Amino acid sequence: MIRAEHICYSIDGRPILDDISFSAEQGEIVTIVGPNGCGKSTLMKILSRLLKPDCGSVFFLGKPLNAYSGKELAKQLAILPQSKQAPPDMTVEQLVQFGRYPYTGLGGQLRAADFTAVDEALRRTGMDRFRGRSICTLSGGEGQMAWITMAIAQTPRILFLDEPTTYLDICYQLEVLQMIRRLNHTLSLTIVMVLHDLNQAAAYSDRIFTMKPGRCYSYGKTEDVLCDAMFREVFSVEMNKYKNPKDRGGTDIVYMPERIVEKYEG
Ligand SMILES: Nc1ncnc2c1ncn2[C@@H]1O[C@H](COP(=O)(O)OP(=O)(O)OP(=O)(O)O)[C@@H](O)[C@H]1O
Ligand SMILES: [Mg+2]
After folding, report:
1. Which amino acid residue places its CA nearest to atom 3 of ligand 1?
2. Nearest C-alpha neighbor of 201 from the set 250, 158, 242
3. Which helix H or strand E contains 158, and what residues bound it?
4. Between residues 262 and 173, the one the model is more confident about
5. Each residue of 75-115: pLDDT tens digit?
6. Would you state the pLDDT for residue 113?
7. Structural domains in the chain?
8. Residues near ligand 2 ion, CB 5 Å cutoff
9. What coarse category fits the chief subcellular location reported for this protein (predicted)?
């Protein structure tokens, strides 16, 4: 569905991404993990055309990203960046309606199909009860859900989520992750997300993409990627592993960082 080849990107002459290749198949959940500042958000922005790479190409459904018009792409691809800001007096409903922007004509008028998509998105995420509330009065978790609802109203085929669970309590984290999985199952929505919690990455991803500063370290199935060498060489930690007595749907190991090890310069 999306494929990036040999992406390089620098800022003021400082290389941020160096020869990164990435792909996600239709209907997959792929999670990008890696230390702070390694380039995860930058990669997500390049994959969703918010940033243009210095070299390399990104293909969506086999076509180069830059062959799509802005609206054409926005109908198929939605991104929720790490930090988001809505105008202070905007209501949840108005924010979600914003997701219909790629479908509107010149005057930006919403049509019947747009109102239906907005209602449907609000229902799917359980945000209907907050419809008339101003975004700035929502809690962090409710706010995150409002943004996800906006992305759903966009009816994309691929959704990029940069740290969707950060700052949320464990209940909301679970709610957001279960929602992501439900959208993936019911709409066959392809998901590419960034998470810091490796247990959550293990439980909710089909494949995990691990990054060291500026480059890919490994990419593959959870059980192949989450190994001692990766924890040591990417995160500089030694992990304790515990067998989970409950079936968590494919993964049965719980990881707990034990101690910091020397930085691996490889
Ligand atoms: N506009 C910018 N100007 C200067 N440096 C930048 C800019 N944007 C990103 N960087 C740098 O690029 C590197 C990668 O940043 P990025 O936000 O992609 O990291 P990240 O992996 O998402 O980190 P985190 O886990 O903290 O969100 C960092 O060193 C950051 O300081
Ligand atoms: Mg980031």
Report:
1. 11
2. 250
3. strand 158-162
4. 173
5. 999 999 988 888 878 999 999 999 999 998 777 899 999 99
6. 95
7. 2-85+157-260 (3.40.50.300)
8. 40-41, 82
9. membrane
pLDDT of 147 higher than 60: yes
Tell me which of 9, 17, 20, 40 to substitute to probe ligand 1's pocket, judged by most ligand atoms within 8 Å of the beta carbon. 40
Residue 229 carries which side chain, given as an amino acid letter?
A
- Closest atom of ligand 1 to CA, residue 43: 18
Is 82 near ligand 1, meaning CB less than 6 Å away? yes
- Phi, psi (rounded to 5 degrees) for 2: -130, 140
Q: From ligand 2's centre to the CA of 168, what distance in Å?
A: 16
Ligand 1 centroid–CA 37 distance in Å is 5
User: Do the beta carbons of residue 206 and residue 30 sit within 8 Å?
Assistant: yes
Q: Strand 29-33 vs strand 207-212: parallel, antiparallel, or unpaired? A: parallel
44 vs 265 pLDDT, higher one: 44
pLDDT-based confidence at residue 252 (cuts at 50, 70, 90):
confident
Comparing C-alpha atoms, which of 25, 32, 4, 46 is closest to residue 196? Answer: 32
Whether ligand 1 lies within 6 angstroms of the CB of 214 is answered as: no
Q: What's the CA-to-centroid distance between 122 and ligand 1, angstroms?
A: 33
Residue 249 predicted with pLDDT over 60: no
pLDDT at site 86:
83
